[in-house]
Design goal:
Helix content of chain A: 25-40%
Distance between the termini of chain A: 38 Å
CATH topology of chain A: Rossmann fold
Oligomer: homodimer
Structural class of chain A: alpha/beta
CATH class of chain A: Alpha Beta
Strand content of chain A: 15-25%
Mean pLDDT of chain A: 87
Largest interface: A-B, 64 and 64 residues
Number of strands of chain A: 6
CATH superfamily of chain A: P-loop containing nucleotide triphosphate hydrolases
Number of helices of chain A: 6
Chain lengths: 176, 176
């Protein structure tokens, strides 16, 4: 029975659609079971994720854009890096705080891929500190190999066909 | 502006996780925008999709397992085929009825792939009858080529790493 309560580390990566969307679906499913679900969004989306933020508010899910609490200080050499560091601190607080049964780090692969955060340090910290029952979900392209090795479940979303190639615009409600 | 209201045909296929889950995420996003979302489930899941059915009830989303309304008649030569035909009739009613802004046909690729339904007839019917503003989402492995050609947006979910290989069991709330 202990194994049934094992928290999974899940990575949704690849160039296709559905990485964040599948994480939202997991959140909805877990919410249906009365679990506490949280999402930290590391990258600002152009359209501000209008649909999911509105849905989250209606459901009482936590979806927090990292930009929200970040304040720029002149001591920070690079705002992009400083924002990623701030985001990771927020993630650590939620991982240690015990308030989430599922924590989604949305587009967290980018700070790792671009080297704004040190992936080996982060994996070492997670191995040490992640509560064994917490489900941790990471989304984004270019998932680093060290993250894939650490994860239990990795899915690549591959683009087979995309409507923008035919001149269609992104559809509200479906895509954002 | 007309293009912005174009209904998309979306296919989530492949051997990986996240096909149905991403469809659920789309439903959540659309629900957040006040759209009417419906899902017909063509294949019975072992665990009865407990999390999503519970969430759907709490949200007032329609998620209907095809098994629900199907009644076996001795005239049906093959129950599997008869159930698929019945499911497709239910889908047609919803497509024509106008009560859904997004309709998800969950695991609808299987009746097409296994030939319980004729994919060419179905695509021809959809080309003729699908309202242009309706978003139609089809999930499942083995999406037939004719469906991929008809679709606007096709994503393949590819399994890169799966925890069952390490002996972990499926996790309630996250996977079902």
């Amino acid at each position: 029975m202990a194994k049934t309560r094992q928290g999974l580390v899940i990575v949704n990566t690849g160039d296709g659609k559905g990485k964040t969307t599948a994480a939202l679906g997991m959140m909805l499913r877990a919410w249906g079971r009365g679990m506490r679900v949280c999402m930290l969004q590391f990258i600002k989306h152009e359209k501000a994720n209008y649909g999911e933020i509105k849905a989250a508010r209606r459901l009482g899910l936590e979806i927090t854009p990292i930009g929200d609490g970040f304040t720029w200080s002149s001591k920070d050499p690079d705002e992009t890096v400083a924002r990623a560091v701030y985001g990771w601190e927020q993630a650590q607080k939620r991982i240690l705080g015990g308030g989430c049964d599922i924590l989604v780090l949305d587009e967290f692969t980018y700070p790792l891929h671009f080297g704004w955060l040190d992936v080996d340090e982060i994996i070492a910290w997670l191995r040490e500190n992640k509560p064994s029952t917490l489900h941790l979900v990471v989304t984004g392209r270019y998932a680093p190999q060290a993250l894939i090795e650490y994860a239990d479940l990795v899915t690549e979303m591959k683009e087979i066909k995309h409507p923008y190639n035919d001149g269609l615009q992104a559809q509200p409600g479906v895509e954002f």
